[in-house]
Design brief:
Length: about 260
Amino acid sequence: MNDDDRLRQMLEHLLTSICRRATTLQLDGSFEQEIGPIIERDSYDAPSAEDILAQAFAPDRRELLDFGCGPMNHRPFIESLGYRWRGVDYLGGVSPTVLNEVQGLESEISFYDGRMLPYPPEEFDAIWAMLVLQHVQHIDITFTELARVLRKGGKVIGQISYLEQIQDYGTFNFTPYGMKVAAQRNGLLLTRIYPKHDAFSFLLRRLTITLGSSDDTPFDGLFNPDGFFHRKIIETGERIGMSVAEINLVRLMFCTHFVFELTKP
């Protein structure tokens, strides 16, 4: 057995041993009260932000803002769904690693001051926010602006850091409840939320990369919503009589990222 196999098996053994000890659920009451009604109650499926964006498309709701679009990596996918793409970014907050690339795209991207978006009210049917809201400096202003430029019934869809460590000038990591509060306080509702990468394998993978010379680690492939941790929590939850919603809450509780949908009522 090589070192990679040994490390992977050690993590799987640790998680298995913890789950084997499980006898009952002790979940924080506020987490269950505030996020429980939003959580998926009938399935263990955890759609990606891309899945949710595809589901939200309608021929009469095509105008999309790619918020924090950077070098437009998501544009081809977004346009393949049928959306009319427009991008915006805060030039002062762009990572130095992509700054030169982004500065050369001014004909394609609108830049703003990190506060007020350069669009009239109710301009967009959907806003794509993929791993960007953890970089904003002004949470309430940002959410107010997203709500302002979104049409009624429109969606803000994306993914966000939760328990992840630093990520290129990251400012705030949102908890699920924090996302609900920030949205609700500024005219939006958190309507869907799903777990993404589990914290144990994701953080060990990141540590291995940080201290190593390669992005290939023993933990690749373990941390997605169909990975070892998620399967083990589902198996354990069913064994001790937890509901689907309770199992999904536990999965969400121990993720480095989550997928969300906000709706403008």
